[in-house]
Structures are given as structure tokens and as C-alpha cells.
Amino acid sequence: MNGPVRVRYAPSPTGHLHIGGARTALFDYLLARKYGGAFVVRFEDTDQTRHVESGIHNQLDGLRWLGLEWDESVDIGGPYAPYRQMERLDLYKPFVEQLLASGDAYRCYCSEEDLEREREEQEASGEITGYSGQHRNLTSEQIAAYEAEGRIPAIRFRVPEDQIIAFEDRVREHVEFDSNGIADFIIVRPDGIPTYNFAVILDDHLMKINLVIRGEEHLSNTPKQILMYNALGLPIPEFAHLSLVLNQDRKKMSKRDESILQFTQQYEALGYLPEAVLNFIALLGWSPGGEEEMFTKEELIAQFDFDRVSKSP
């Protein structure tokens, strides 16, 4: 890791603080405090269909109740503001142009109907479904024809063939992916809004994040992100993918399951002490070295490290 540790909690502002997100934020916070680094809270709000106006307020309220003070965010600013993706769109544009100029990205004029037809044909023939790259190598005449139709392109990343994408994860250790299993993916939608995978690597780079802690559901995003880091010539941060938080039936929690207490605001409303909830969250996938089960925040900071974070839920 280069320089002081800089970590970020980067939720989508879709509602209240879930305990899975709270655990990520807690581990971020503990490492930042332990090693004299910075804990950044930013908001990934490019998916406007899921945006909840009160979501940012609710997330910050949940962190504040737990006692997790942040160093940079939307409310207090910081050296790498703004801390909402929709306010950073102009910052992403030079990187899009760089990928287009190098040939690592291309304009794809496929309509939703084109893509649906492709999926149906793949299913009918028993193929694995996914984008086939049909607009990878359009001629200037084909591009002109699509432009004349008024089609507005998406921008896709050109995934290289026959590459093994490997990285050392702080939790899962050595991880490998084959690029042949990854289809060319959209990095900018036709409306000009970048997708999650593209915006997140640029934010992490521009904010100098050098350790990315997140849930294992993001593991499959990592090879795509590494490919883009490499294509742009950017340093790659370290990754730590945490195991899922399961319910009492050992199944992944559903946010729609109202029978389970899974949002910090629910615990607060029922009168739980934030210190107790913080201890509960800390022990979701992390084991202390001794027999203690209750810790002050300062004791958690002193004891926490990744060598006792479990790969398994």
C-alpha cells in the first residue's frame, strides 16, 4: 500500500444503513484510525432509478449513531470534493476519451431490441448469454448509418482475450479470473452517465483510495475494474472482499425481509445501545484474539486487522 491508508465507504443512497454496509464502514473506520489514515464517505448515485432523496441523510445518521466519525464527505467537504458521483461527471470525461483514443473502448449502437434478440438467439442455441461484441469493429460506413438513424451510442470497454486477471485479496488471498469469461461491458450509458464499475475506479483513483473494503458480491466486478485500471495506466488499490452477512437460516439477508432487524435505525428505535450494536457488527466475520466479547471503540481499533477476518460467512 502506497502512503497513509485511505479507505472509503461508498453506498448508494437508497435508504437506511444496513448492517452489512455498517460492517464495511466499521472496518474502514478501524483501519483508518489504527494506521493514522483517512475514512472517506462518498455516495454512488449514478443509478437514479434507485436514488432516495433522504438516503444520504439516513446513511450519515446511521454512521453518526454508531460513533463512526468520517474525515471527508458531502457534509464536511474535503480535498477531493465533491463526494457525490452525479456532481463529478465532468471529471470522468477525459478518461472516457483516453479509452476511446487507445482503442480500449468503443461506441456501441446496439438498441435494447438488438440485445434482446441476441439473448434469445443465444438461449435458443444453448449458448452462454452475454454481449457478443457485435459492434466491436464497426466500419466508418456502419457508424455513419447508425448516426443517420439517430442512434445514441453507449461506450463499451473492449475486454482483451486470453488474459488471466490475478490479484491478492486481503481476505480471500489469491484470486484469478479468465478474461474470456467477461463480455465487453458498458462504461457510459447512452444518456452520458457512467456505470458503477467505471465511475468507482475513477473516484478511487482521484480520491487516492489505496484499500477498497467491500462485500464479496463485488468480487466479480474486480477483474473488470483491474482491466480498466491497466488500460488507463492507473495504480491499482488493494482489495478486501468481506463474506456475506447471513440471516439465522444461513441465507443471504433480503432487505425486504421485515422479520429481521437489519438496519441500524431499527436497533436505535428499539433502544439498543450503539456500543452494543457496534460490537455485534464487529464480530460479523471478525474474531478477536482472546476470549473477550465486549470492546470499547478504542479496543476495537487496537485489535482489528485482516488476519482474523474470515473468508466464510
Question: What would you note in describing this structure?
Answer:
- Strands 3-4-7 form a three-stranded antiparallel sheet.
- Among the domains are: 6-87 and 246-308, 3-Layer(aba) Sandwich (Rossmann fold); 98-165 and 184-188, Glutamyl-tRNA Synthetase, Domain 3 (Glutamyl-tRNA Synthetase, domain 3), CATH 3.90.800.10.
- It has ten helices and nine strands.
- α1 links the parallel β1 and β2.
- α1 packs across α10 (297-303) and α6 crosses α7 (222-232).
- The radius of gyration is 21 Å and the shape is elongated.
- With 313 residues, the chain is an alpha/beta fold.
Given the helix and strand composition, which structural class is it?
alpha/beta
Low-confidence stretches: none
Widest sheet: strand ordering? 3-4-7
- The CA-CA distance between the termini, in Å, is 26 Å
Here the CATH topology of the domain at 6-87 and 246-308 equals: Rossmann fold
- Our count of helices gives 10
List keywords for this structure.
313 residues, 9 strands, 3-stranded antiparallel beta sheet, Glutamyl-tRNA Synthetase, domain 3, Rossmann fold, two-stranded parallel sheet
